[in-house]
Design goal:
Shape of chain A: globular
Helix content of chain A: over 70%
Number of helices of chain A: 14
Strand content of chain B: 25-35%
Distance between the termini of chain A: 18 Å
Structural class of chain B: alpha/beta
CATH class of chain A: Mainly Alpha
Strand content of chain A: under 5%
CATH superfamily of chain A: ABC transporter involved in vitamin B12 uptake, BtuC
CATH topology of chain B: Rossmann fold
Number of helices of chain B: 10
Oligomer: heterodimer
Number of strands of chain A: 0
Largest sheet of chain A: none
Helix content of chain B: 25-40%
Order of helices and strands of chain B: EEEHEEHEHHHHEHEHEEHHEE
CATH superfamily of chain B: P-loop containing nucleotide triphosphate hydrolases
Number of strands of chain B: 12
CATH architecture of chain A: Orthogonal Bundle
CATH class of chain B: Alpha Beta
Structural class of chain A: mainly alpha
CATH topology of chain A: ABC transporter involved in vitamin B12 uptake, BtuC
Number of domains of chain B: 1
Largest sheet of chain B: 6 strands, mixed
Number of domains of chain A: 1
Largest interface: A-B, 31 and 38 residues
Chain lengths: 328, 254
């Protein structure tokens, strides 16, 4: 496990650095090093590009990938469902709806309003999920999952409605945001996302033991002393912190949370203490690479979120065929 | 376990289907009691209720003076190890990780394994003869190996009360006898064991006491020989059971 983590960390370092090289103007490796070493206050044009444009953007992308993948791994264990991911439960789509409403009603709002609204939307969706399922009873995990799916389609309908009601110009903006991407993201977005993501990740990691026990079923988890009801709330809260932060700065980027844990399980096993950190690193690598590809090699219209979906679906189908036995 | 486990007026129904009906019993410390009864009599439901993994039943199950539903979950798990009947493993956890879960109630969510925890895990794996499987992915185990892995988890838990739902199912005869020997050894050490079982021959040879369940009612309890030979057992199973002169059991339908 330590070796896998080291390899992933090294990969992430390389991916982050390479992502600094290309863009509207290409930098050589040496130039990129020089620009980096000059620090954020560097006077050269290269240093400005690296420190003010490319580095924050690629960091945002890495953080989003890591947060989504870790949350995906945690949700898959919590719901004992290989298809569970941050968008399945309506958490991400709650964020989308909130963001769309802001774009729709407050087009002139300051730059930080949109991420804040998306974050609140994600949290509102998670809260609604808990309130609906836990009010007056003890829901089974299946009920929580199904309620999440229903909420998700409700929010998606809300988004569609907003799209239908918007004019040409708004429509373009809404669609752009909904495609998910890191266009023009800066340090402010890093600052918005990082604390919440770290908190969410720490929460998920701290209940790793509970997640492992829950993956074997609720009665088994209870038999080894896991307070199942509280564990579910804690995991939902940790997941909402991570996913909310991710959606708030990048919009809905699909499939990272679904695929990365599946990719890594054969290597690191299913134990949360190994799976969550390696998923975080792996998700960061995957998304930085995808963003690089979308930014540098693909036509301008193909946003990060579109690319992950385009690549994610066939890849996931391939995984399904290869591992028909057990997916989790 | 120093005081008996006391079941009083335990009832459970799903809609109007009564699954457990007015169950009253005491399980004295150090006893090894088999729960017997035909399919659907409520054996698993009873064990789930006692382990507080079933919700919505009425009456009381008292462990050390406190209702099992009032115990904080980890503290309950330190006192009672429960083996559920269905043991699905959908995730590639290693055998050792799975057995280590028995120590979770002692450690909570955070604390790292101590030496005493490692020893408990190790001796549980050795007792269940799965130490050589420790690094195996649990999804690749055979039914019997998986069964022994879960039993090792229960043993590693170190609780004075063991609730085992069909612990013999899926094991070959050699491992069945080995497990029964282990359970007898544990009972001799003072552990209290309540286990459900289908194989009445094995139960008769190894359990001292039995509870007979028939359609949700506890119709007879006592030494297993008496329970099996009782008219209540005949009603429950529709089978006449008697001990032959050579000591072996004879079963005849009717």
């Amino acid at each position: 496990m330590k070796r896998t983590l080291a390899i992933l960390a090294a990969l992430l370092g390389v991916a982050l650095f390479v992502s600094l090289l290309a863009g509207s103007s290409d930098l050589s490796i040496g130039a990129a090093f020089r620009a980096l070493s000059q620090g954020p206050a560097g006077a050269s044009l290269d240093s400005g590009i690296v420190w003010n444009v490319r580095l924050p953007r690629t960091l945002v992308v890495a953080l989003v990938g890591g947060a989504l993948a870790a949350a995906g791994g945690a949700f898959q264990a919590l719901f004992r469902n290989p298809m569970a991911d941050p968008s399945l439960l309506g958490i991400a789509s709650g964020g989308s709806l909130a963001a769309v409403l802001v774009l729709f009603h407050l087009p002139q709002a300051p730059i930080w309003i949109l991420p804040l609204a998306a974050f609140c939307g994600c949290f509102g969706a998670a809260f609604l999920l808990v309130a609906l399922t836990h009010f007056g009873g003890r829901p089974t995990m299946t009920i929580t999952l199904l309620t999440g799916v229903v909420l998700s389609s409700l929010f998606t309908s809300g988004v569609s409605l907003a799209l239908l009601l918007s004019d040409e110009y708004q429509l373009r903006q809404l669609v752009f945001w909904l495609a998910g991407g890191a266009e023009a993201r800066g340090w402010i977005h890093v600052a918005i996302a990082l604390p919440s993501m770290l908190a969410g990740f720490a929460i998920l990691l701290s209940v790793g033991r509970w997640l492992d026990a829950l993956a074997l079923g609720e009665d088994h988890a209870e038999a080894v002393g896991v307070p199942v009801y509280r564990a579910r709330l804690v995991v939902l809260a940790g997941g909402a912190l991570s996913v909310g932060a991710a959606v708030s700065v990048c919009g809905p980027v699909g499939f990272v949370g679904l695929i990365v844990p599946h990719l890594l399980r054969p290597w690191v096993g299913a134990s949360a203490k190994a799976l969550l950190p390696s998923s975080a690193l792996g998700g960061a690598v995957l998304l930085v690479v995808a963003d690089f590809v979308a930014r540098v090699w693909l036509p301008a219209g193909i946003q990060l979120g579109v690319l992950t979906s385009l690549l994610g679906v066939p890849f996931f189908l391939w995984l399904l065929v290869r591992e028909r036995r057990t997916m989790l | 376990m120093k005081q008996p486990l006391v079941l009083d007026d335990l009832r459970f129904a799903v809609r109007d289907k009564i699954l457990l009906d007015d169950i009253r019993a005491e399980l004295p410390p150090g006893s090894m009691t088999a729960v017997v009864g035909p399919n659907g009599a409520g054996k698993s439901t009873l064990l789930k209720a006692i382990s507080a993994t079933l919700h919505g039943w009425t009456g009381s199950v008292t462990l050390e003076g406190r209702d099992v539903r009032k115990w904080p979950r980890p503290e309950l798990a330190c006192r009672m190890a429960y083996l559920p009947q269905f043991r699905p493993v959908a995730v590639p956890l290693s055998v050792e990780d799975l057995v280590a879960m028995g120590r979770f109630p002692h450690l909570g969510a955070w604390k790292p394994l101590r030496k005493s925890d490692r020893d408990a895990i190790e001796s549980a794996m050795e007792r269940m003869e799965i130490a050589y499987l420790r690094d195996r992915d649990a999804t690749t185990l055979s039914g019997g190996e998986l069964q022994r892995t879960f039993l090792a988890r229960c043993l590693a838990q170190g609780s004075p009360l063991l609730l085992l739902d069909e612990p013999l199912t899926g094991l070959d005869i050699g491992h069945q006898l080995a497990l029964l020997e282990i359970l007898e050894g544990l009972a001799a050490e003072g552990k209290t064991i309540l286990w459900s079982v289908h194989d009445l021959r094995l139960a008769a040879e190894h359990a001292r006491d039995a509870w007979l369940l028939d359609r949700g009612r506890l119709t007879r309890r006592g030494p297993i020989d008496e329970v099996l030979a009782s008219p209540e057992a005949r009603t429950a199973f529709g089978v006449e059971m008697r001990r032959a002169d050579d000591g072996s059991w004879r079963f005849a339908r009717g």
